[in-house]
């Protein structure tokens, strides 16, 4: 098992209202793949589920739909402000079986009788993902489910025919996250992370939204992602605000893709699940 205690990475996308909106937009694009992961893993009606790195609550709300009113969900996040958004969304949905807790999932006091622990895009930012996964799995009953989804920056977004603007944006993104110290291949390393955490080798699948119609939501999502990371991009000297021209980026991207009759694939998410030994 890994024992390295590398410091956690900074959340490169910032803590703004715009970033919270981007996370909800991201959930719309990737939600079906996340639901597929949880259904395949066996998360179902009546279960008690722990969601780590809850953010604005999208994963917790999805799980709440799967476990129904007979089940329950506990979401954990270090960001108190974004949990206010998550609580408001749960209340608006009439959910009384979803609880959000502020704290670090590795140290916060939690029960040890969960049927499943889940997370999406959380291990990416943790200095020792395997240790974090081991701690998370420690809150499960024997035979409980571990299901996580992580992005992999070794592929995509890809456009065919090639979109010069798509490539430019991807170059900006990769340079920024690399200089910020993020692991680019965390998704493809997810299987080994499970094993290093003392779990069984997981079942795996890979998903990526794809589109090219003028009304496709992917254009706005990519531009929102660049907007969130732009302050760090400038700080690290990757690109200037003038080069990016963020307020017109989504429209320029859409127009270029439509003119080229391209199809664009967004970044790939790797899904993994296994049962606790």
Tell me about this structure.
Mean pLDDT is 92; it is low at 1-5. This protein has a single domain, classed as Vaccinia Virus protein VP39 (Rossmann fold). Strands 3-2-1-4-5-10-7 form a 7-stranded mixed sheet, with helices on both faces. It has 9 helices and 10 strands. By secondary structure, the protein is an alpha/beta fold. The chain is globular and about 55 Å long.
Which keywords apply here?
single chain, alpha/beta, Rossmann fold, three-stranded antiparallel beta sheet, 10 strands, 42% helix, disordered N terminus
Low-confidence parts: 1-5
Number of domains: 1
Overall pLDDT: 92
Backbone shape: globular
Q: Please name the fourth-level CATH homologous superfamily.
A: Vaccinia Virus protein VP39
Radius of gyration: 19 Å
State the CATH architecture.
3-Layer(aba) Sandwich
What's the quick description here?
The chain has 277 residues and is of the alpha/beta class.
